[in-house]
Specification:
This protein has 99 residues and is an alpha+beta fold. It has helices spanning 23-35, 66-76, 81-92, and strands at 15-20, 41-44, 57-61.
């Protein structure tokens, strides 16, 4: 599990690497970063996300991890729709055709 440096920088010292309007999307990105051993936090910039889902959500990391985090995120978004369809079809297993 990735952890923030022992000095535990305050939120203001962390660097935003991904912004979205959806908390679920931010959680996916956080999981992606954690799988790359990059510690991150998800911060609601405007309004509490659990009561009224308005505003933006930012995924933040320690400054020394920002460049790598942005690269991991960018690499994950390079998969084309066609490649995703091919992967999902390959993982779906055999299908039966009804005539």
């Amino acid at each position: 599990m990735a952890t923030l440096p022992k000095s535990d920088p305050s939120e203001s010292e962390l660097v935003g690497v991904f912004t979205t309007n959806q908390d679920s999307e931010a959680q996916v990105i956080q999981g992606l970063l954690e799988s790359a051993n990059i510690a991150s936090v998800v911060v609601a910039e405007i309004g509490p996300q659990d009561i009224l889902p308005l505003g933006t959500v930012v995924v933040k990391v320690a400054p020394e991890s920002a460049e790598l985090a942005r690269q991991v995120i960018a690499d994950s978004q390079k998969i084309s729709d066609e490649e995703m369809l091919d992967q999902s079809e390959a993982n779906a297993g055999p299908t039966e055709t009804i005539q």
